[in-house]
Amino acid sequence: MSRRRQIYEGKAKILYEGPEPGTIIQYFKDDATAFNAEKQGTINGKGVINNRISEHVFARLAHIGIPTHFIRRLNMREQLVRQVEIVPIEVVLRNVAAGSICKRLGLEEGEPLPHTLIEYYYKDDALGDPLIAEEHIACFNWASQEEMHDISSMAIRINDFLCGMFAAIDIRLVDFKLEFGRLFDGDYSRVILADEISPDGCRLWDMKSGEKLDKDRFRRDLGGEEEAYREVARRLGLLNEEDNGPGEVLDLSSHRSRLRGTPPVKK
Ligand code: TMP
Ligand code: ASP
Predict the structure, then answer these.
(1) What is the pTM of this model?
(2) Looking at CB atoms within 10 Å, which of 72, 77, 99, 234 has the fewest?
(3) pLDDT class for 1, splitting at 50, 70, 90?
């Protein structure tokens, strides 16, 4: 038996050649990075949870007619997806001011924005993923006008849908990042949703307490990141008894107070 071929290793995932042409296996790691990989660490069990959350979100989006790369989840850490050519643009949707926009424009974190903002960042680690305008995308031909029309209209629909989905489980969708890819059919291609949607690339705040249930716990050294990710999965109804295998899914009840409390003392 030959070993499967690794295509790419990113910060949070490894991509392997899939079983059929045009397919890829996404393996979700526990590795976490922030600030363009200046800060590195591990969130135990994150890969398992993100695989499950992303599967759920992509399946729900497919139901409302958003084309996605997701085919099926293979096991705890892997999913089968369609092979696409990633559009080199990170699409960020913001409903509430947080993170880099606060620094850039002097906004108070938590201020609701007058309306949803859509921002584009050029996907280039060496440049630190700079904020760009649509003019740059056209000028440097990173995506066509037709692709940008499809991307922005899908992004707005995704935001509307996800705001409702999270509100139903008492979570505010503050902001999140999307990536799209080109699916080729002969000489033609269309853009579909790719990558993942998980607490790694979203800001998710508990509606009542405001506690952060996302990667900001890691970025800001708040602690309790494993419990926060599991809390999101639990509220989405994705943690059932048989998932509680050793080392994969923890019982949250004993950790819940940590999510509300001060950062744990560093040992
Ligand atoms: P920002 O406030 O740091 O610009 O992030 C906005 C959103 O995009 C936030 O939910 C986190 C997500 N994001 C990523 O998924 N990857 C990234 O590299 C960055 C910078 C942000
Ligand atoms: N994922 C990005 C990085 O490592 C940034 C972030 O999510 O904060 O560098």
Answers:
(1) 0.91
(2) 72
(3) low
